[in-house]
Amino acid sequence: MTPITDAAHADSEALWRWSARQVAHGVATRSISAREVVQSCLDRIDAVNPGLNALVEVRPDEALACAAEADRLTASGAELGPLHGVPVAIKVNSDQTEHATTNGVAAFKDNIASTDSPHVANLRRSGAVLLGRSNTPAFSYRWFTDNDLHGRTLNPWDASRTPGGSSGGASAAVAAGMVPIAHGNDIGGSVRYPAYACGLVGLRPTVGRVAGLYGPEGVDPALSVQSMLVQGPLTRSVGDARLALDGLTGDDPRDPFHVPGAPVAPPAGRPLRVALVRDHGVATPTAEVGAALDQAAGWLTDAGYVVEEVELPLLAEAYRLWYLLCMAEFRQIMPLVEEVGDEGMQRAAAGYYAVSSEWWGAQPGLTDYMNGYARRGTLIRVLAEFMQRYSTVLLPVSAEQAFEQDADIASVESMRRVMAAQASMMAIPVLGFPALSVPTGVAGGLPVGVQLLGRRFDENGILDAAEVIEARAGVFTPIDPR
Questions:
Q1: Exactly one of 19, 40, 190, 224 is catalytic; which is it?
Q2: Is 76 one of the catalytic residues?
Q3: So what CATH class is 6-473?
């Protein structure tokens, strides 16, 4: 497939194709209006969303009113935010004033939010036009986006494959041209994997970089949610990911792990060194994934990076540790899952526990849990020391391309395969470092790409490396659903 060119994005008769940066510039210079952009996106949603089910709630009148206000501010000469006039979709597991925070659960369909979550408030303050609510699996706990309340979201590249999860509605919406930016969150790959499955850029910031809110008022969030979950953007280009991160960033006292005025990592030593981790001993990448790693390594080498193939066994250990810490805490809401969760979520949870019990036993104890958090701190230190030499780690997002729909719940053996393929992606939330997925091409009709892991608070470093890859690979979306 031929990558999409800038000329295609600049087609003034199809504003839904424009990048977020082009939209923000066009609105700010009054060469286009926010209302025109929003209407173009609404028309695109009408054309493709019925077949994909990516956005499960769209209020055209509300969006157009916000766009009109954006145009009024532009005309007034007021200072404009980085996303002024840019349409953005919000995931249904985040509070957006006067919208239901369903988290893909039928029993939560009337949970109307009275305030915005911190990241939603920051997007609004940055000038974004909140255009729709994107689908997620029940409880946002699968890499497949389906639930009894909103239904299944399809991958615009191939309906038989997952668009990823849990931010699968977000990825399908951006890939199909409904919005240039979608919000997602990531505690187990829920930004990076959907981006990978749909040929997008997905950025998981450093823990503490972006303020988020962990559930409804009066509910104490699990420690893993507080210390591993992040909010991040899904976009069609690296430049838009930079812009979206800027729009998401802002202080908010409601996030106990947020770092106000988060620091920028000190410059990495020269030459910039990249550690290529091809196989960490859990799942061998397919030929297509291996070729993507080789291609990305070659492009980075051409740009002056020193790429060295290394082993990094702590990733496999951190992957298994995720299932001790996060799934131990998830047990506390299993009665609620059994009461109101759909069948897919219940079968997925059973599969997670069946496989992870092979490492941690059927009922890990308090000592196991405390020792797990102690070990987590050691792994973070070891990785930080490793990254004194390497500014970036190049590794798979997944060992496979987008899975067949419902591969996680077909059987325990199938779940074992899916979990193993996701190992390098699952390790990173435990460690708290920033990472992103960036597409490198298309193989067999499906996107393929790589993951870049960076030093803490060095989002710029991995975005720089991703731009090198994108400059050679191109941009592959928006696309018409296949």
A1: 190
A2: no
A3: alpha beta
